[in-house]
Amino acid sequence: MIKEIAIDELHLGHYVVDIVQQQGNYQLKSAGHVKSDKIIDNFISHGVNSLLIDTAKTLEPINETSEEPLPSVNKGHFSNSSTSSEPLSLELAQAKKIFAQAKLMQSHVLQNIVTDTVIDLEPVKEVTDHTVESVFQNPDALACVLNIRIKDQYLLEHSVSVSVLIAIFARHLAIEKRIAKDISLGAFLHDVGKIKIPDEILNKPYKLTEDEFEIMKTHVGHSVDIIRQIPNISELALEVAAMHHEKLDGSGYPYQLAHDEISLYGRMITICDIFDALTADRVYKKGYSHVKAFNVLRKLASQGALDARLVDEFIRCMGVYPVGSLVELSSHRLAIVEGRTKDPIRPKVRSFYNIDYRHYTMAEDIDLSSAKENIVKSVRADDYNLEMNKIVEFLMLQG
Questions:
Q1: Are 351 and 371 in contact, with CB atoms under 8 Å apart?
Q2: Closest C-alpha to 158, from 13, 37, 287, 22
């Protein structure tokens, strides 16, 4: 199990996966066991506050608090594996097409709202159903496409991405496909009310004033009103859209729901919504790395705002190194994470770039669970002045 611990909880025998919080810029050379007190002292001296450890690899047993199963979820059916045996790169073209079709449909929906035209549910449902079917067949390809974003299309891409994320999460939690389709539809429509928010507030590149934020919060009510008017829309889809800003401690909006008043699906979309908002690039800010976004989710959970068990499952679902994310290898190459193995910190990757010479190389598929090299750290494309879209296109051309 991958879990975050404070530096004062780090003991000899722990297997450190990555650094989460720190006061400096210390970089972990590679994952490994804590074999001496000097290693712990080194972390402390460099201002490390918390780390990720893999409890399954701890050399000395540590007592874990037993956990109750998630409500209404068959924990024995959790699954991260894809049912597809094709290399991820071969499925990216189809995944990109699905994502593009969903964005186009999102654009049509928003245009219907602007022109006060009744939204036809069938084509919208067809798109989201197709997304869910694709996710249940192979979640990795669509998870990879989520990393290919256009900064000035956030409103369109965010709703599509949250719809994909909640479908991936539902598959992981073994939620029935028919329910996954309803909650994915609700996620697809959850932010349509933002079309009613003035552009100067919606696209403001700086922190909103209190008055502006109050106006921004009205988008949920607008979304609910719009969705409720769609003929034959399900109550579950409406529920998911209505709850996407509610928090377990009652600090959310617009209804200030708390605890049992928020359904499992309402808790799920809040996590997916926050995660996508944190990791997406926008015109005025860079997205967070996945590790940093996971840390924010954990902090919100520790404060009582999010369901802690669901946050842990979401992180487990996405993976320590999520499919489609970039990593630096010990061989001074960049690689894209393509799939998972039994070892969460040694996934399947495809290398494509030489860091020392700063140029693309012939792509090579590597199963790190059986290879000698390992991951040094997670990186972002712009750390090397690269573009994620071009990286994926290059890998697709490599076949």
A1: no
A2: 287
